[in-house]
Amino acid sequence: MKYLFECSNIEAATVSVQIDDTVKKLSAAFDYAFNGISKFIPPRLPMLPLEYGIGLIVGAVFYFHPDVVTKERVTANSSSYYEPSNFDESTGSQKNLAIPKYAKTTVKTIKTTIPFVKNNEFDYTELLSFLGDSAVKYGWLIFIPIVILIVTAVSNGANITDGIDGLAAGTSAIIGTTLGILAYVSGNTVFADYLNIMYIPNTGELVVFMAAFVGACVGFLWYNAFPAQVFMGDTGSLALGGIIAVFAIAIRKELLIPILCGVFLVENLSVIMQVFYFKYQRKKHGLEFAQANRLFKMAPLHHHYQKSGFHESKIVMRFFIIGIMLAALTIITLKLR
């Protein structure tokens, strides 16, 4: 082995190592391949994304844990409205029993909130109606895969969105604020009754967590705004998406995610469309044509606008505006039937 040293100045030095055949033979003698792969290490098995495992755990906990419950809405029938026992002596009038109330006992259900529908609720077991009375028993067959899909999609959407300074953190703060509002109204009988949404006991406690989440995003955004001084990387962006997905599932608002997380959705779709369009063009017209005729100048979508000459700050600010509009639309959907 020979060491060649070249020093351009006192502060820096360049070291060049020349490895001859003897070293290669010695490494082979110790059962160690020279390319850095040990002969004793078995070949890597196919690995599933981490989001699948997290989604599986989250889905199983939400479905099987006895404390994940809701309270059903109950309404007195009209025949009992004029009974003497329903007369309120303090006001001198009949009690208004037509106002929806909530049962004292909790129920275990996999119902969720669905937008633009009159009853505003959807039971996942309806997708298994062909099983008859066994649909409730086997509801996990549809619920857990849906949870895995949601966790995977949202976490990857946040990860893809984290491409320019401040975009992922600011968008997540907007989404988090909206989810915090939805969590509060879902855990308050007055607001849940007025908005005609599911009443989920104790979700008000989640508002504290979401407030911390939003505060962390805003604090990070302070230093991540253009020009960024700190970066979250894949670990941070995947975590942001995972928290948003799990929180939405916990308050039964996961079907609002396509609207609320519309920025994440569009970023995801832009990558999918770019890949499929490129493969289609390559198969039909050849590689050179496909490279010269991409659907977007660059994917994800925010990079397309960068290539089009827009400044980072303008792109981020316009995405924020869209995010705020989508957040407002998400809340409005609770009254649009």
Give the CA-based shape: globular
Number of helices: 12
Helix content: 40-55%
Mean pLDDT: 83
Number of strands: 8
Low-pLDDT runs of 5+ residues are 1-17, 30-34, 37-41, 77-87
Order of helices and strands: EEHHEEEEEEHHHHHHHHHH
Q: How large is the share of residues in beta strands?
A: 5-15%
Strand order of the largest sheet: 1-2
Report the radius of gyration as a whole number of Å.
Answer: 28 Å
How would you characterize the largest beta sheet? 2 strands, antiparallel
| Sheet/helix structural class | mainly alpha
The end-to-end span amounts to 78 Å
Features:
337 residues, two-stranded antiparallel sheet
Topology of this protein?
Layout lengths: L1 E5 L7 E5 L2 H9 L20 H15 L8 E2 L12 E2 L4 E2 L6 E2 L8 E3 L7 E3 L16 H22 L5 H20 L2 H7 L8 H21 L8 H18 L6 H4 L1 H24 L1 H6 L8 H7 L4 H21 L5
Antiparallel strand pairs: 1-2, 3-6, 4-5, 7-8
Helix pairs in contact: 2-3, 3-7, 3-9, 4-6, 4-7, 4-12
Compact description:
With 337 residues, the chain is mostly helical. It has helices at 21-29, 50-64, 140-161, 167-186, 189-195, 204-224, 233-250, 257-260, 262-285, 287-292, 301-307, 312-332; strands at 2-6, 14-18, 73-74, 87-88, 93-94, 101-102, 111-113, 121-123.
